[in-house]
């Protein structure tokens, strides 16, 4: 019998892709899945793509309604503002406890690891934090770390009857397969800034970096996790870690912000979107739309738990592989193209200016 699943954020980038992946793997689950939508305008799209799916319309602050809806499901996957919206997490826990327990898969973000940095961190030294040997570090970060208040609540809510897990992805890239949002934020926002300001932008410290993972690889992990979680509910013992040990960092490698900014700039110049390839050094607040990790040089996440317990490995292309598509997409959003054809032609060798054909 298909499991009864409650999923939030289905109109979002990650949630939409995970829903696509879940129903591609298990088309017979469609009528047993309920998705929380905050916008009635999406009803037609969801009913057209997934005729059997159950739609639940509510604000994330409608905690009583969410708790009541959750109580009718055995497993919850939370994406909608999940990293920072405490009331919705509280409602989910209340609903699952109301039914006598269940499974809560929560989504956070590796920004939380910025709380592991110290003011006096030696220049050039990087602290690598994994979710296996470093689980105590991950689950006991300072209270002022990003997302930490919600993480703490979820970690403290686990019990013998309520199994909780936190999946914590780094920068997510790639074009999503969801019905509404297919765009990530951090790298597209950086590309957008460069295109708007008509010059390459980077921090003075070229060593700043962060981790990343392709949205398809991340969705594949969620599907595998849900499959194993459902299997465990019908077995005496499983292989997943839950509650205080149920914290899963997700990454497939690191990238340097300066290198990505240079690749964006070079690609934009090649397409005739920038007058030059030169990079301009700016302050961190200029790059704020790219996210908090833009100034990180001290902390790196490492995925161990998902690899050991689930056999998960990333198989999609790297972030640099996606840069041409990101630049083209952001240029289209900014309408930096010929209004008639919308096509792009780049600079030929020796040309000084590129045009849109």
UniProtKB/TrEMBL annotation:
Residues 5-85 form the NAD-dependent epimerase/dehydratase domain. SUPFAM superfamilies: NAD(P)-binding Rossmann-fold domains. Signal peptide: none annotated. Pfam families: Epimerase. One of its GO terms (molecular function) is aldehyde dehydrogenase (NAD+) activity. GO terms for cellular component: cytoplasm. PANTHER family: NAD(P)-BINDING DOMAIN-CONTAINING PROTEIN-RELATED, PROTEIN YEEZ. This is NAD-dependent epimerase/dehydratase domain-containing protein. It comes from Aspergillus sydowii CBS 593.65.
